[in-house]
Amino acid sequence: MEQIPASIWTLTAGVVITLISFWVGHNHNLLPEQASEQAPLVDDFFDIMLTIGTALFLVVQGAIILFVIRYRRRAGDDGDGVPVEGNLPLEAFWTAIPALIVIFLGIYSVDIFQRMGGLNPGDHAMHTMGDHNPAVAVVAAAPQTTATDAPPLLATKTNSVPEVGIGASPDVQGKMPDLVVDVAGMQYAWIFTYPSQGIVSGELHIPVGKDVQLNLSARDVIHSFWVPQFRLKQDAIPGVPTELRFKATKPGTYPVVCAELCGGYHGAMRTQVIVHTPEEFETWLSQNQTMAAIPSPSLVASHTAALGVTPQLLAQVAAAAQSPQPVPSSDHI
Amino acid sequence: MQGTVESQETRGVIDHHHEHPDFRVLGLLVFLISESLMFGGLFAAYLLLRGLNEQWPPEGTEVELLVPTINTIILISSSFVIHYGDVAIKKDDVQGMRKWYWITAAMGLVFLAGQVYEYLNLGYGLRTNIFSNCFYVMTGFHGLHVLIGVLLILGVLWRSRRPGHYSAHQHTGVAMAEIYWHFVDVIWIILFTLLYILTRF
Amino acid sequence: MAQAQLPLDTPLSLPEHPKAWKWYDYFTFNVDHKVIGIQYLVTAFIFYLIGGLMAVAMRTELATANSDFIDPNLYNAFLTNHGTIMIFLWIVPAAIGGFGNYLVPLMVGARDMAFPRLNALAFWLNPPAGALLLASFLFGGAQAGWTSYPPLSTITATTAQSMWILAIVLVGTSSIMGSVNFIVTIWKMKVPSMRWDQLPLFCWAILATSLLALVSTPVLAAGLILLLFDINFGTSFFKPDAGGNVVIYQHLFWFYSHPAVYLMILPIFGIMSEVIPVHARKPIFGYWAIAYSSLAICCVGLFVWVHHMFTSGTPPWMRMFFTISTLIVAVPTGVKIFSWVATLWGGKIRLNSAMLFAIGLLSMFVLGGLSGVTLGTAPVDIHVHDTYYVVAHFHYVLFGGSVFGLYAGIYHWFPKMTGRLLNEPLGIAHFVLTLVGTNLTFLPMHELGLKGMPRRVAMYDPQFEPINVICTIGAFVLAFSVIPFLINVIWSWNKGKVAGDNPWGGLSLEWTTSSPPLIENWEVLPVVTKGPYDFGGIVHRPVMDEDDDEDE
Ligand code: HEA
Ligand code: HEA
Ligand code: CUA
Ligand SMILES: [Cu+2]
């Protein structure tokens, strides 16, 4: 058989592919703006994978096209190709290289995940104590946050602080979050409760640069709390408390999207997170603290009006938001 | 095919068709791998639920041991009984096989009756709590398998009425019923450990 | 030449052997593996059209941001049944049931499968399952996605959901029966003259697939039984307020359904390993590497399921462990991809429809696989989980992979099954439309997902409308692409050019019998003297070459 071509051509191809891949990896423009501390970490990692992926794709694709052109059957040629059945060094090479890439990506994922705080959910155990018994913190996500009103989500040992989600990133490890918000998902709205401030809201308001902890819970079915600009997502699961802890880095208004199928209007289960400057946030707090805000239909789902959501649905959601019971399920016993 | 084709097969080529060896036992064994994973899934779910609930079984649910223990003894001994049947058929003793298989079927039915008796006398029903959910679904599912096993054995007994249907050289059906019965038995031992013994101690 | 008695003469008409099956035999409980194979293929294709129609309805809805074409609940019913039908009634039955049944006995030199009646029974479980799914629309249709996570699945359209569960249990049973059959057949029934290293790679792939189906399907059944009890009999396995836990369902589901994605691709990999060498006129590169990598994918594939649950109720160690195990799968898959590319090297590649689809698969699948790797890492998956990025990934591997592979297989073995060739120009038109449609539909979805569009929504943020319109246009191109194919199949089946026994000059055993094969496959069982990929050295003269020359 011929030698594996190690000519100047391969070298050029290698350089070109590398350049293209790097270019693609850095100029793809596929990700939305970065608004949390985690976002750049995720994006860098994605860029690296996109670079490697582009290179691998181009290599495979290039080889296919090259071979198909070079080795296509010419008219009248009824012969067979070269009877090559394998090449041990070559096979070892293309097993080893992906293996190395994969090991690298694996280690890198763990590192990124650790820096995102992914390895430390539940780290804040003693911190929510102040105004809040941690044991109730998770179930108290309902708007009326008295322990008795809280739905009996699980009479079991999951009745404790979240052990699932994104927790303290290394720089805030062992520290108390600056702000704790209880987030309850229900068909089809998010209800945000500020236990220390006594605010209930249909939108999430947070200060920029502060360490925020969201305690997620779900009233009826599974929902998933996602802010694309934060690159953070965590399911809100009935009976399993979860959390997201992060710092927003850029004031602005970003969408909060429900990412887990939760019924017909899953697509309309959207609201906003408003990242304030510290002063603005204080103003917001003082304005809202006074009125014991109960979410009105328009507040709960004000961002979904254009999507074909019926007024009845909005009313139903608002009613559910006020009722302490979990939305009825079909336990038709 | 038949006819023409078979008569042509004379060139020293091995015919693989009708006479291909009987793979039914092998097929059953492969199938049982699958069956055991079905139970495996149930066991896994049970163990996870058990791990997630602080009290297992929940307050007020007492697992009764007497009837199930008797039942267990019956089922385990029936595995030995059915084996005698297998030994008998290997010695061409069809009557002996029939005798042991009858006894096994009877023991299986006693087991099922015991199960029903237990269901009727327990202090909890299918919906009482999470433990009782598991309990009824798992034992019920196993009971269904016992029933299938009994039907297989009865099938063997039915066929064995015809003289010559089973012999020392031809007893695949007999062997299959036996294998299945052992399988049902092994599953019961695991179930009994999980649902009864480990909840008491 | 490879096998003994390889008949290479060109017949002038279809062999009129007396014992051929008649058309009505295909509507009966026939136990011949070839009849069953074709029953599977045709039924599955009909379901593909039905599932595709649902996709077209969904894409029409998604052309605008608002919910204005169909009711959102109906949308969810469509999306659930689209996913379910495509997976359980199209890819799995067509790849394993269809090609597996048709080819395995022919390839190993057996007259039938080990348990023909079980085989027929396995097939006949499929139509009722499909009927159940379709009938469930009378009750609103299951609406909880093909994953059917509780609690949603226990509280929405419960009658339809129960029918869905029964349908899946039926196809699951069918798949277990099929697996038992394949394992025993391949293990025990290959002609004695065939060494293990002469076993066609398709059979290795089916063997690996069957083992995987055998151990994973029953776990799904267990999960679904518990779900059925929760819905109908008042138990609370997955009801948190009574001591149950919803995450357990997800574990049981994905323990099956991750391996299920390999059930959908491994047989296709097998088809690739047959089609490429024959049309490249080269021995397959790295026979053992390909055979073992199937088994490796199976083994590793059993331990990666949590990558579907990175944002669910899973603790950190689990997310990390399964990140790493998931990444490992890329290695054996890469070995296969590279081996096929290397098989092209130095060949005499015939670019007919079968080969075009095979090469198309190579490129499309690699893209899908690479996006799979990015999904496999928890940090990135946390952002893109349950978005259109995932939808893009799995359509690249499922459509760009499995469907392309099935088409390659159909173009390759149609002459064997019917005795007639498919029309080449129509085939090429079909390929071009499919390739364009696939990329138009699914490539832009990557961007949608990354930028923030969740999946399974009937209504979405209007900023995503322009990209969605492109996807919808692509979907119409895909729907249109089926037309040349259907015309081709129907026309060629009756009037196509007569193929002869071995139109491609293939060396595996199925080419040693007539096309279509006799009822008992061979008059005299073949003797294997050479492997299925021993191309080179001897010049073959495949019958179709004269006709090819005209085209070029
Ligand atoms: C045919 C079906 C099929 C196949 C083959 C695959 C293959 C892979 N899939 Fe995919 N997947 C699906 C079907 C499939 N998938 C479906 C249906 C879903 C969605 C389910 C749902 O939620 O509804 C899904 C979802 C899914 C997820 C969950 C996403 C989420 O919901 O958040 C993940 C995450 O890890 C994943 C990963 C992978 C990986 C790593 C592979 C690997 O096997 C890919 C390996 C291949 C390659 C990598 C390319 C070739 C290799 C090389 C060129 C070598 C060099 C490469 C490297 C060194 C990287 N898939
Ligand atoms: C092998 C599997 C497979 C295949 C082939 C396809 C094919 C297609 N899929 Fe699908 N898809 C899935 C598996 C598959 N899909 C799965 C598993 C899901 C996830 C479901 C879930 O979330 O639960 C999904 C989800 C899914 C979504 C996401 C929905 C959502 O999340 O909201 C979308 C959206 O665009 C989509 C589109 C398409 C399109 C346009 C095609 C096209 O390729 C289809 C092309 C159309 C045809 C080929 C039909 C042609 C028919 C005619 C022209 C009419 C003739 C008809 C008769 C005579 C009856 N699919
Ligand atoms: Cu809530 Cu989707
Ligand atoms: Cu997977």
TrEMBL record, chain A:
Binds a copper A center. This is Cytochrome c oxidase subunit 2. Keywords: Copper, Electron transport, Membrane, Metal-binding, Respiratory chain, Translocase, Transmembrane, Transmembrane helix, Transport. Subunits I and II form the functional core of the enzyme complex. Electrons originating in cytochrome c are transferred via heme a and Cu(A) to the binuclear center formed by heme a3 and Cu(B). Residues 176-287 form the Cytochrome oxidase subunit II copper A binding domain. Belongs to the cytochrome c oxidase subunit 2 family. GO terms for cellular component: plasma membrane. One of its GO terms (molecular function) is cytochrome-c oxidase activity. It comes from Parathermosynechococcus lividus PCC 6715. Its EC number is 7.1.1.9. Residues 22-120 form the Cytochrome oxidase subunit II transmembrane region profile domain. The keyword Protease does not apply. It catalyses: 4 Fe(II)-[cytochrome c] + O2 + 8 H(+)(in) = 4 Fe(III)-[cytochrome c] + 2 H2O + 4 H(+)(out). It holds the Pfam family COX2. Its cofactor is Cu cation. The keyword Transferase does not apply. CDD domains: CuRO_HCO_II_like_5. Gene3D superfamilies: 1.10.287.90, Cupredoxins - blue copper proteins (2.60.40.420). The chain crosses the membrane at residues 6-24, 45-72, 92-110.
From TrEMBL, chain B:
Residues 1-200 form the Heme-copper oxidase subunit III family profile domain. CDD domains: Heme_Cu_Oxidase_III_like (cd00386). One of its GO terms (molecular function) is cytochrome-c oxidase activity. Pfam families: COX3. GO terms for biological process: aerobic electron transport chain. It is found in: Cell membrane. Its main location: membrane. It is a multi-pass membrane protein. PANTHER family: CYTOCHROME BO(3) UBIQUINOL OXIDASE SUBUNIT 3 (PTHR11403:SF2), CYTOCHROME C OXIDASE SUBUNIT III (PTHR11403). This is Oxidase aa(3) subunit 3. It comes from Parathermosynechococcus lividus PCC 6715.
TrEMBL record, chain C:
It is found in: Cell membrane; Membrane. GO terms for cellular component: plasma membrane. Its EC number is 7.1.1.9. Pathway: Energy metabolism; oxidative phosphorylation. InterPro entries: Cyt_c_oxase-like_su1_dom, Cyt_c_oxase-like_su1_sf, Cyt_C_Oxase_1, Cyt_c_Oxase_su1_BS, Cyt_c_oxidase_su1_bac. The chain crosses the membrane at residues 38-58, 85-108, 120-142, 162-187, 199-228, 248-272, 284-305, 317-342, 354-373, 393-414, 426-446, 466-487. SUPFAM superfamilies: Cytochrome c oxidase subunit I-like. It comes from the Bacteria. GO terms for molecular function: cytochrome-c oxidase activity; heme binding; metal ion binding. It catalyses: 4 Fe(II)-[cytochrome c] + O2 + 8 H(+)(in) = 4 Fe(III)-[cytochrome c] + 2 H2O + 4 H(+)(out). Residues 17-529 form the Cytochrome oxidase subunit I profile domain. Its main location: membrane. Keywords: Cell membrane, Copper, Electron transport, Heme, Iron, Membrane, Metal-binding, Respiratory chain, Translocase, Transmembrane, Transmembrane helix, Transport. It is a multi-pass membrane protein. One of its GO terms (biological process) is respiratory electron transport chain. PROSITE patterns: COX1 (PS50855), COX1_CUB (PS00077). Gene3D superfamilies: Cytochrome c oxidase-like, subunit I domain (1.20.210.10). It is an enzyme of class 7 (translocase). It holds the Pfam family COX1. Belongs to the heme-copper respiratory oxidase family. Cytochrome c oxidase is the component of the respiratory chain that catalyzes the reduction of oxygen to water. Subunits 1-3 form the functional core of the enzyme complex. CO I is the catalytic subunit of the enzyme. Electrons originating in cytochrome c are transferred via the copper A center of subunit 2 and heme A of subunit 1 to the bimetallic center formed by heme A3 and copper B. This is Cytochrome c oxidase subunit 1.
